[in-house]
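Revision sheet: structure tokens.
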Amino acid sequence: MNLISKVGNKIGSFVLDKELKSRIRPVAFNNFNSATTIGFIFDAENKEYYSAAKEFMNYAEERGDIKVFGLAFVSKRDLIGYLPYRKGVDYFGLDKRNWYGKPLDEGIEEFIERPFDILIDISLSEIYAIEYIFALSKAGFKICNNSSKAKYADFVLELDQADDIDLFIEQVKHYLETIEPK
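Predicted:
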């Protein structure tokens, strides 16, 4: 990582912390039985992750009256045209961001402001743009793996195989089916 990237990352973290101080987010545990909306953040470039995310979104929709929304990232916006269409999924390119990494794509602010009952980050990545979206989301209950985003999550899964998307999803499903809200 070069000096400019390091400075950008530090400033990005500072700006994110400052924005978080002015945001109020009521935290409320939800499971598959109590949730009506679930947001998903995922990697659309990795075919395995993309396929797993689509299957997970379908699974959540089939559980009942749950509306799902997805936000998928790709390294360049022009790659989006090559991805299969899925209703309820928006894409953003990492090439549309400011100098310290804040995503500037249309639709991201709308995704952040949407008060999902549950937000699940299945990107398993350390990309600042994803961290920014996850941190600022107004979702009532946030789930992620043990990564840099964990400090913004309400439920963190730590797995021995940190990059095993299928195991991560299996565990999320298990907990959202088992744990009951108060």
